[in-house]
Amino acid sequence: MKILGPKDFGVKGYLIEHDAGYVSGQYNQNIINEIKDIDFSQDIILYAVLQKYDTPNKNGRIYPEIVLKKEVEKYQQLIKKGGALSELNHPTSSLIDLDRVSHSITEMWWDGKILMGKIKLYTSPGWRKMGIVSTKGDQAAMLIMNGATLGISSRGVGSLKQIKGQNIVQDDFELVCFDLVSSPSTPGAYVFNDPSDRDQYQENIEEKKPETDRMKKLMGNLDKFLAKN
Predict the structure, then answer these.
(1) Does residue 191 sit in helix, strand or coil?
(2) Which of 90, 110, 126, 105 is nearest to 17 (CA)?
(3) Rg of the chain over all Cα atoms, to the nearest angstrom
(4) What angle do CA 85, 215, 201 make, to 5 degrees?
(5) DSSP sequence for 162-173
(6) Distance between CA atoms of residues 185 and 50, nearest Å
(7) Under-50 pLDDT residues of the chain
């Protein structure tokens, strides 16, 4: 199974939302200032825009309402069982690597077409007591503490169909998780302290076009890597 690119239609593969740009400095500064106020000796709870239906993302994909809502309902059952684990950065697989788990989704809810989520970072006793970074959750906490802006991006398996020039995710889509990334493809999908703050971090998708050449090169390198393994 391969990572699907912009022209891979009619085949099932990995739908990984590759990083595709950054929010403006003003948005970055607002997020950094708020997250720096977190007491890192306690549980680190964040909120994020996880996905949006019927909205083009920076990879040029659209998740239809019926497709995304079906998978969200299934994922809600995973949350109830405590199994909604996710990683720091996207791997090149649909499997969750327990050595790379950094956080879990503890709650999800709809706000119009926007899927909101509550995130708990998995930090270790060493981090809480002495600031020792020994896990991916510790690493995520360290990045945030030092002013890094983290986004959240979905990972799944499915196929695409081009309809009227738009890349539409099909109903065979299976949601795997929501990874922490440096820059998400869903507009405005950045973490913040309070769910009511999400309106401050909206992006205009028209202002940030996909980096087509960069994405093609990246996906080509990933395909070569997968072919060798």
Answers:
(1) strand
(2) 90
(3) 17
(4) 60
(5) EETTEEEEPTT-
(6) 10
(7) 19-28, 31, 186-187, 189, 200-216, 218-219, 222, 225-226, 229
pTM of the model: 0.72
Residue 91 CA to residue 158 CA, distance in Å, equals: 16
Residue holding tokens 């239906």? 53
Using the 8-state DSSP alphabet, how is residue 118 labeled?
E
Give dist(CA 79, CA 133) in Å, integer: 26
169-92-171 Cα angle (round to 5):
20
SS3 107: strand
Please give the domain boundaries of the chain with CATH numbers for all domains: 19-199 (3.20.16)
- The whole-angstrom distance between residue 93's C-alpha and the CA centroid of its chain comes to 15
Q: Report the C-alpha gap between 176 and 14 in whole angstroms.
A: 10
